[in-house]
Amino acid sequence: MSSPTATARAAGAPAAAPARRSGPSARAARPGRRRSSLAGLWFVLPFAALFAVFLVWPVLAGLWASFTDRSLASPGAEFVGLANWREMLGDSAVWQSLWTTLVFTAISTPPLVAIALAMALLTNRAAAGLGWFLRLSYFAPFLLPVAVVALIWEWMYQPGFGMVNGLLTAAGLAEVAWLTDENTVLAAIAVTTVWWTVGFNFLLYLAALQGIPAYVYEAAALDGAGAWQRFLRITLPLLRRTTGLIVLLQIVASLKLFDQAYIMTNGSGGPGYAARPAIGYIFEAGFTGLRIGYASAISYLLFAVIAVVSLVQFRLFSRKGETA
Amino acid sequence: MRTTHPTPPPAPGRRAFLAGGLAALGLGLAGCGPADTVLSGRRRLRQWNLFTGGDGARMVQMHDAYRREHPDIDFEPATFLWGNPFYTKFAMGAAGGRAFDIATLHVSRIRGMGAGTLIDPVPTDLLAEHGITRDTVLANVWDKCVVDGELYAIPLDTHLVVTYYNREVCERAGVLEPDGTLVTTSGEEEFLDVLAAVKEATGQYGIAMDTTQPWRQFWSLYRQLGGEMSFDGDLRLDDDKALRSLDFLRRVSEEGLAPQASDAPGTPANFQNGICGLMWAGNWEIATFADAGMDFGMRPFPDIYGAELGQGDSHCFVLPHRRVPDDAAVAAAVGYAAWMLKHSITWAGGGHTPAYLPVTRGDDYAALEPQSEYRHAAADVQFDPEAWFSGSAAPLQNEASAVLSGVHNGSVTPEAALERFKAAARKLIDTPEPV
């Protein structure tokens, strides 16, 4: 189980690159260059084959499965038309889990962007001797596997002897049953997720910050702009494209919440299913309930939500870019 | 670039080489196992199980002994992660019909995993040749392995929720018998008195239980009240008895006798840390405390409503459905299962009570402490109600855990929790059966 952010990026990046490259070369093909463009095709072929076998085909097969009563436990499947889709629309668990996913996205994305920016600003100015250490420590949690992260935080959240509650009681506050209370479990998982994955956004911001030339700041300082004004008028606008990218990737990653929520609630989805995300319900329907057909239908609903949210977000940011 | 195009290398040759290499590799890999077996004349026996941790180590120990005694069998066990990951693979493997010759399963999942479709009946005559019959195995467990008059599983053990007690704490609380075992109680009040005394001794709580998975506690209490539950067409359960069971759980938490929140990893930790002197948990936690060198004992689930009944299940061996009958493979699989049952004294080290009676009646088992303290509980183990969605790690337990856990921390009243549970169970009844 890789991190949601990592999979999002791994799936997105290579998919775009070869498509862009093969396009112009195919159009520019002239008789004399035919051989070389054919050779190019061979280079694209390994990727194209994998793309077709592991992405295009499963996507189509999943769509077909959503119209059948396919079960994990029996070989055949019968076409049932829109029965799965109709059942899904009337299934309150689908909407509850989808809502959980959206709430998680809403509460996890802002801190994952803001904290990453804050950390990047801090380390960007750090002294040369200490900089590498700070950058490493901010990024380090991202390198941990999800099971390790979930385990660490499960123990930290324990009532009675966990660190978080220990700090609360030391400060004279009441203990909170973080992972077993309907009202706190999702927030607790969001905090864990922020700690775990903020490092990647931090890295993107740090790279963008280092790309801003020093003379821009120098000129602003000469014009009498203070530190806060320089941040507002120079740093933030110049980071706009990076912010757009980070927000988009983060929203998609947050919408794909599953592994940490599954592990931290021991697969139960939390009290009252307060921490069962959409993928959690898809997993339950497909793998606990063995109903692959029904699970496919729900996964298409989630796919639609992710596509719509990404498109809206993309349009919002690109329009801002034009007016700037 | 002077030469516009370098002479293309003999491409077909290279491709042919690569393709040929891949094909050869594939052939080699595919041929590995069977070819080996065919050449050596050993029978191949593939076993799938879901045991990791302490249980896994004990199973490996037994398998090593099995291999030493059976040089003629090429034994290949494969371990998968407990719960869903295993059951998913089991269903897919059995549906394919070629994946394994024998597998472990929870008895409560036989229906859900397709007795008759994915799972083949066990030839009882063959089993009897090895001395395994209804008379030599716990009868209540054997009967659970029978579906529509056919035996579908060979039971290895019984495991159930029991009471653990910290001897040092209980001694201070004055709730030990002179022989060092926990006092026997009867009824709600007697047990609550014990909890109050233990709470006094620990200064924090009396008992810990997994509040994120209340099904075990609930089903134990509900069965003690004589409650029944069935899902044939419609949900049938006894509201009054269910409410009484849930209310007892609420009361224990509300009176501060048990932590309001204690999850799966937290519960044994609470017991080990001495935050509480008692714990309700499955007997498989035994190794954790034994390894920690704790002075503890175990008793059956207490008699709250008339009998010491505890929720539980049983690990068993099942034979997958074969598209092509293979009597020799079935014979080898049954022989293996019988061997495991007869050597289950090793297995008992993990807290599970062996189903094979000659083992539990032997002196070796009587000497096992604290396993022998609760051995009689196995005869009364309370299995989950029967449905394709019930049993260990199945949807019903998941639903129950999610809706009932609020009772422990007081966020949901027993009445509201029961209504939610009934709604969840009705939804499962309406779900088309996937097997």
> Which protein chains are joined by the largest interface, and how many residues does each one contribute?
A-B, 37 and 48 residues
* Beginning-to-end CA distance, first to last residue of chain B: 66 Å
Radius of gyration of chain B: 26 Å
- Global structural class of chain B: alpha+beta
How helical, in percent, are the residues of chain B? 40-55%
Return the average pLDDT of chain B rounded to an integer. 89
Fraction of residues of chain A in helices? over 70%
Give the oligomer, counting copies of the same chain as homo and different chains as hetero.
heterodimer
Mean pLDDT score of chain A: 86
Uncertain segments of chain A are 1-29
Please describe the biggest sheet of chain B, giving its number of strands, its sense, and whether it closes into a barrel: 6 strands, mixed
CATH superfamily descriptor of the largest domain in chain B: Periplasmic binding protein-like II
Global shape of chain A: globular
Number of strands of chain A: 0
- Uncertain segments of chain B of ≥5 residues (pLDDT<50)? 1-12, 27-37
- CATH A-level architecture of the largest domain in chain B: 3-Layer(aba) Sandwich
User: Which value, in Å, is the CA radius of gyration of chain A?
Assistant: 24 Å
* Strand content range of chain A: under 5%
> Helical segment tally of chain A?
14
Number of helices of chain B: 16
